[in-house]
Amino acid sequence: MHDILGQALSEFDTAVREFREALAFDPPLRDTVFADTSGWANLLTYKLVPHLAGEGCLIAAVAGGTNSGKSTVFNTLLGAAISPVVPTAAATRHPVIAAHPDRARQCLEGKLVPEFKPAPWKAPGDALADGQPDGRLFVAAREGLGNRLALLDTPDIDSIEKRHWAVAEHIRAAGDVVIAVLTGEKYRDERVVDFFRDALASGRMVVPLMNKADPSGDFAIARRQLDEFRADVATEAPAFLLPLRIGDTEACSTIRSADGVTDLRTYLEELDVPAIKHRVYRDTVAHFAEAATEFLERAEQMGAVLKGVADEFEGRATAFAARYDPAPGAAVGGLFHEFVQRKRGAVRRLIGATSGAVARGVTAVAKTVTGAFHKRGTLDTAHEPCSDAELRTVHQEAIENITRDLARSYVESSRNLREPAAHLLIGAFDTLDVDEALRAVITDVLRTASVSEDFRRHANLTLEAWWSDHKGKRRALEALDTLLAAVPAAIAAPISIYTGGVGVPEAMVFAGPIVEQFVARVIEFQFGDAMFDFLSPWKAEQQQTLADALRRRLIRPKMEALERARAPFEGDLLDKLRRCHEQCRQES
Amino acid sequence: MPTGIVDILDRLEDLAAYDGPWRPLRAETALLNERVRELRAREQRLDELLVIALVGGSGVGKSTLLNALAGDQLAPVSEFRPCTSVPTVYHPPGTRLGHDSWRGVSGSALEHLVIIDTPDSDTVVREHRALVTEVLAVCDLIMLCGSPEKYLDEATWSLLRDLKSERTLACVETKADTAETVREHWVSRLEREGFKVADYFRTSPRRTLDRKLAGREPGNDEYDFPRLERFLQHELSRERIRRIKRSNALGLLTKTVGALHERVAPGEEALTALRGRLDDVERELAKRACDIIRRRLFTEPHLWNFALGREIGPRAKGIVGTLFRLLEAVRTVPARFAQWMPWGSRGIGRKAAALLSGDELFNEDLAGALNEVAAAYKGAYSEVSLAFAQAGFDMPEGDEQGGEDEAGLQSFREELNRRIMNVLAGPAHERLVARARTLTSWPAALLADLPPLAFVLFSGYRIVRDYFSDALLSGGFFLHAGAVLAIILGVELAALSLAARALAWTARRASGRDLRLALAEGLPAFTEERAALNGAAALRNGIQELRTAVLGQAVEDNIGDESNAGEPNAGS
Rounded to an integer, what distance in angstroms lies between the CA atom of residue A321 and that of residue A319? Predict the structure, then answer.
């Protein structure tokens, strides 16, 4: 059983660390995900994983509020001044462990109480010292202590030094037995009671001890206070008393139990270590499995929220891009022409190409000539853009408007987001350089405004389908085309008869293109009903391009933080955690 | 409260009432309202009693301290925690404090003072913490109680941190017993967290209470207790109380305004940039509108010919003038009687009339120009609204997918129309009239009439002369003369018409320039946005001034403190 559980636990531990590491770049998010997890995380790190090393030594931690006399109790238990006793509050900064020399060695190697930075104890003042690294643990070797017991002195749990709280909680997790040092003033403080309640809930034994008890009336007041505490915390262990003013720690070396049967040191030494260890371990695993459930659920939920926000933001780009309604330029119209040319025979195609070139030249000249007359605006007619340049301007403006409106909707909705996504996106779009993003989007979209290969293929398929579906029409058109191909020759023939060849080239030059263009238009006009099938994919393609460009240029750069935060939730880390957790639950 | 603070408070209240689109300020108004309410309440209570709260952890002896001050067992004391469950209010006869649920004990000999003993701030009974918070809200002076065993507990400190600089704080060390005192450690820790400790009393209330109950005279084993009593009885004069309250109020005010300023101050550059942007967009929009109008209106030369013709008509003089007028009348028949003629063009006449009479130019018929202007406006609006959203404004919008701002467009169009009409009905019209006058002036008419008249006179002379010399002219002569007269008139009419066209052309060019000038300084398009921006800038300046004023008050107060009375005695 231990093997599977042990493996699951250590895997869980690794995965949790990795998860934490992955979120380290964003402390607020990490803190939200890991809120209220210090309890079970401490258990995992300081108890469950180290326990697998299998060290059979009972660890008793002396804990309590500031100035309640933890160090006094510690020293009394050891019969020596190991921990400093100072009248001011919140004095002990670093924990001290006292153990048999063999155990002390283990401890210095980091085996007994892992994750701390052990250092050999030299003088009582050590624990008060500034300038020690966080997690420092002083190790005092005491011959007098048995091989089965180690004693820990801890910093306070309720002063304004919150750093001390964390250390005390690590110690609590590492211990098997917690000695609750109380005073007449502190036995019902919320922090103190909660601390020991949590200790009990996670499987620790809590032994209450009333310090500075008033001996009058056979400790009547202290006994009642102890009873109240035991009821609050619901511990069943026997209570102990230490009277007020024990002037000399060396002299008064026993702490009697409330019923007077035993003293604390003896009680601790006589505890059944393997049984307690086993019970503590079992309860710890159960508590851990219980407590970690909430964490997993929250992590999953947050992952879902982040994904929801990201999807919503990306999806909105598509919704906005749907408002883009590009008009086909000459490029799309040209497809008809190409198709018609392809369907004509080789000779006819040659004539078509030549006359097309001539027609283009004539059109250019005609445009230049008539330009002066045509260049005339009117107030009332709607102006349809027709040239490519004009179309481009119109498209560009449409894209600008869509992009700006989209950016504004992001600005507004990123303000109204709720945590955990809010802090990842807040203000992100406020600093967006829209002009730069716009330039990029326009380049992306308008570069591909000409027809793509996909669309060309699709267009040809549509036209081919039409061509094969309308056999009668097709034959008529082909016949017309062939017939009219003869028209210039038909005109030129009589001319040559009457003029002896003069004027024939002119007739061919003018009549050829006119006829050719006329037929081409007639055929193209037949495709009118195919126009809609033809254009809607093109529009969809353009809208898709715009949506992609918006996502790439507008959203993604600003959602990096969100994406980065999402990654750990999306990966297999959570799955692994869930799997390990399930195993733990079953095994426990 | 002195006028300075009242004035500041009024202005703060105005800010708290802000409900405009500027987000940085609106985000603060909820807190601001709360603070203003509190300050107002404090302002009203300024002349009332000084409320002292005894606050501290469980079992430090707050109730015992109250009992020792009163010399009687007023508040219950016990070994078991928590003991006090309801605040005990110890007040002089005839005064009362608003909370009915609190236990009131009358009979205090300390005038102007109300002392409240609070429940514990740190036990398992959480409701007690809420009670302590309530007492802290109404108190003016906090007496933080602590025993050498218990003076650094987070549970109590966490309640006080928010009130830093809003309440005067004094420490009372209870259970003083030996020569050792925690004073130095305690005060240094308090100061490290930013508390200002006004005074420190080391006491042993149990001993004093026992002594008072036994009716003994005070001995010299009560540490600072006599000084504490003296402090409460004598040093807390009305003036001192006022100053404590004022200092508390000023503390809260400084904190509030400081926080507000911190939130709002960095907006300066953003607002300036936004203003620049708004100006740019408006200028650009006006330029585009001008282009649209010029492209459409000023590329219809026939409109201008038509208009000039209409001006010339009524003024025409002389033979050629009359002929020209007739010709114009015939030429413009299709425009004037368009409704009866299938080929008639009604548009020209209507547009020309609009051009010169100052009618509504942009009505629904002119869809083309209208749509183009609307499109330009929409583009500009999306630019402006994005810039405003980015700068932290919540402008009201039409619909979710980018508001259309119909009202704004409407007013913009009206303004644009007004400017164009000013140009058309003003300088453009005058120009046309002036040109018409020139063409139809008497000298011009005479000059034009001279050749045909001279020819007619010459022909008449020939006819008369030949008649008297008995040689009748042949029919050919009359035919000839008629043809020449017709040619002369035709050439003159053509020249006149050409001149009219040329003048219409110059008038059009000149009016185009006028229009560009009229639209050059930009059209006020986004009035709502501009108003919001100006409002925000004004508010920001107001807050800046407010901060200066508050700092000024604080400085004044410090000077007053130092000159009026000695610093609160720190004791020794």
Answer: 6
